[in-house]
Amino acid sequence: MRYTRITALAAIGVAATLSLTACGSDGSGKNSSSKSSSSSSSSSSNGGSKPEGGSGSGRSQASNAKAGSGEDTKAETSANGATKSSGKVTFCKTQDLAIDATDAAPDEASGRINITMINRGSTTCSATGFAGVDIKDTDNTSNPIERGPAQPRVTVLKPGDAAVFDLAYDIDNTGNSLSHPTNILVTPPNETHTVSLKWPAGAGEIKGAYTDVQVYPTHTTK
After folding, report:
1. Total-model pTM
2. b or e along 17-43 (b: 16 or more beta carbons within 10 Å of the residue's beta carbon)?
3. Percent of the chain having pLDDT more than 70?
């Protein structure tokens, strides 16, 4: 019996030793985990430098912005160069134009007033576009004329060249027209100075109102 007790005590001692060893192993496991955690934190800290790639991307965008502004400057320089090389044509000034109005009705139903502008200046100029037109009535009121459905054509005038545009309307042959025009007020394209022309003698009477008259863009006579 005594031998059995000693054996049992020895077994308990071995178990206790193994238990202590296991505890020591757990401790080292905790240390290892702590080291792993520290390493992970350090890695995360290094990973925090990854946004440097983002800031690098930001630098790239800034670089692109500079490049873009450089291209804009280049385009502007190119545009300026093109303007200088081709020579800029300014719009014709009213004071440099001899302007006249004539009746050019093709038949008894269609009214047409041709307005001619001759470049009396010393330089080439542009008369491209729509002239501003008002018709003055006997009651001393002036009525703006609307544009007709047509696209402007490039109209460049050298000294002595002429451009023409016309007013179109239907003729009232009843003798009961309510419109009694006396003058045509003309402002050349892109100008602010106006000239007053006499309504052409013999031109047919306007059918309807002045809102039924249309002005068409300029074109060269050549």
Report:
1. 0.61
2. eeeeeeeeeeeeeeeeeeeeeeeeeee
3. 61
